TrEMBL record:
InterPro entries: Ergot_Alk_Oxidoreductase, NAD(P)-bd_dom_sf, NmrA-like. This is Uncharacterized conserved protein YbjT, contains NAD(P)-binding and DUF2867 domains. It comes from Pontibacter lucknowensis. It holds the Pfam family NmrA. Residues 3-211 form the NmrA-like domain.
């Protein structure tokens, strides 16, 4: 692998301390909402991996980052988008990502767009407790099938496109090897753990009530896996 130095932007240097233990990684404290905090972070940076959180002002954050990249003469932007961002009319998340993609494309900086499917790790991060405690996990997805992708595979793609000019101007859709229903996932989890695991589909209205009780802004779509716990509790009360 090429000799590459990585500068990781973090909200808190203290919380990002573990990243400093990785070879070739330095950390810098930045605030996406504060353009003044970005100048030092972008100094002598050649490539930018643009990742924004799911929030009401993520478009503003993306613009701040791209504008600073332009000022600092960044040579390549890799935008982490979402599968379905190119669909019309698509869902709200996709439309937000498409707007950010367009901003990157019109920046004048060479770019690569990555559109991954849902992260495989989200199933563990947000459903592990109910799987361990009840042998169940809860989501409002019906019989839909999803090709979840491992975030480590996404990272490997990011490295590949950053280190090669041949991917500039390209858009890649990233998925796992197979589309599975959540019932099928439950079966596979049971086989892997040696325990019975069930998937419980949550009615859409119950999911909406759970999100409201979680004080989620109405403008944000129903797609955060962190909602699975309040969704589970509301479903149990029905």
């Amino acid at each position: 692998m090429q000799d590459v130095k990585v500068r990781a932007g973090v909200h808190s240097v203290i919380k990002g301390e573990n990243l400093k233990r990785l070879p070739g990684v330095e950390i810098v404290e930045i605030d996406f909402r504060d353009p003044n905090s970005l100048h030092a972070a972008f100094t002598h940076v050649d490539g930018l991996v643009l990742i924004t959180p799911l929030s009401e002002d993520q478009l503003e954050m993306a613009r701040n980052l791209v504008e600073e990249a332009k000022r600092q003469d960044v040579k390549h932007i890799v935008k982490l988008s979402a599968l379905g961002a190119g669909a019309e009319p698509g869902i709200q998340l996709g439309r937000w990502h498409r707007e950010m993609e367009t901003y990157v494309e019109e920046s004048g900086i060479p770019y690569t767009i990555l559109r991954p499917a849902g992260f495989m790790q989200n199933l563990v991060n947000y459903s592990a407790d109910s799987i361990k405690g009840e042998g169940k996990f809860y989501m409002p997805v019906g019989e839909g099938k999803v090709s979840y992708i491992d975030t480590r595979d996404i990272a490997a793609v990011v490295v590949e496109v950053l280190l090669s000019e041949e991917h500039m101007g390209k858009v890649y859709e990233l998925t796992g090897p197979e589309a599975l229903s959540h019932h099928e996932m439950a079966t596979l989890l049971g086989e892997a753990t040696g325990k019975k695991v069930d998937f419980v589909d949550v009615p859409e209205e119950a999911a909406r009530e759970a999100i409201k009780s979680h004080r989620t802004p109405a403008s944000l779509p129903m797609l955060c896996w962190s909602y699975t716990q309040p969704i589970r509790r509301v479903n149990q009360l029905r």
